[in-house]
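Minimal example, chain plus zinc ion.
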Amino acid sequence: MIRLTTENTQKAVAKCKQLKPRVKFIKDRLFVVYSSNNSNVYHVSFEVKDGEKFGKCECKASEKGLVCYHLVAGATANIYRQSLKLAK
Ligand SMILES: [Zn+2]
């Protein structure tokens, strides 16, 4: 799991806005992100520990401990879902 901070997600956020990958909700905090430039599909999952956000993706960048745009895409969808829940 990679700890998500404002600093280490910045580049990925920019890339995510550019590529706009499709995200599909699977179940609580688990998402599938469809790559924009090839047919790859990545499972992305999230965790919150002591108020810190953590994320994990299946791609090579994530294996190296980097925040990829799949994580950001999933995180955005996750935050959206959480806010819907809170709104109810
Ligand atoms: Zn990834």
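The beta strands are 2-4, 22-27, 30-34, 41-49, 52-56. Residues 17 and 29 are 21 Å apart (CA to CA).
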